[in-house]
Amino acid sequence: MPADLPAARPTHRIGVDLGGTKTEIVLLGADGTVRWRRRRPTPSGRGYRAILENVAGLIGDARSRIPDGGSATVGIGIPGSINPDSARVQNANTTALIGHPLRRDLEALIGRPVAVDNDANCFTLAESVAGAAAGYEMVFGVIMGTGCGGGLFVNGGVRVGPHAMTGEWGHVVVDPRGAPCYCGNRGCVETLISGGGMQRRFRQDTGKDLSMPAIVSGARAGEPDCRDAFERFLDDFGRCLGGLISVLDPDAVVLGGGLSQIDELYEVGAERVRRYAFGQNVRTPILKNRLGDSAGVFGAAWIGV
Prior knowledge:
Elements: E1 12-18, E2 22-28, E3 34-41, H1 48-63, E4 72-78, E5 81-82, E6 89-90, H2 102-110, E7 115-118, H3 119-130, E8 138-144, E9 148-154, E10 157-159, H4 189-193, H5 195-206, H6 212-220, H7 224-248, E11 252-256, H8 268-276, E12 286-288, H9 295-302
Parallel strand pairs: 1-4, 4-7, 8-11, 11-12
Antiparallel strand pairs: 1-2, 2-3, 5-6, 8-9, 9-10
Helix pairs in contact: 1-2, 3-9, 6-7, 7-8
């Protein structure tokens, strides 16, 4: 290509949402419509290299569906962040990623630049721009799934912060005598109101190994152990989010992740939030995501380079 001709702008966008249990990819056309989409289980139990190759393979599949002459940006949301100094993954609840130069390794495999951000940031961006929180100036986005994370949308974009950890409320210590967390502390928000944390605590308290959906179903059916655990979950949700609202006073909170589908969070949970927040007559709306559990993958596509 002659030096005086600008490079052609990419015609498509590829977004990847790398989660603890599933990896999702989307290919968006120039008009923003979904051209192709797929989910695969995340091979987290097989180590870092397997995760890396799984993501690279999905990106290759997406690129193969772009018409001749087209190209795509690539963005990926991860359950952690990239340390600004070392360029390695930090604070990831998919612990196989920690300490690895994910961006560099992925770029080497696929032969092109990649943008990487926290999955909760990608979710918050998508819901604040085109989802349930569109139109609000300051939004806190919450991911409640296998783990628990968050992101802060303010002044038209997601804040990352000098240490790439803005919004990491999942590792605020609520109970110093509580359950150990993979981060090294005890009693973090994530140990209390994530799906994984709830399941571990239920097993410890009752000796029963139930999934979070089974605990919720049992609570609704009046099963005593499930009812007690679910009541405590809703109270912990109120305490954790109420404290956060007292600090940030956002215009809105939007919930994402698998646990965001629990209707009681928007009823009893919201009442508990108002109880524990510092201010009187707290009216902060707690919104269910509009883009579904795939909001993060769209946010990842939009950050692509």
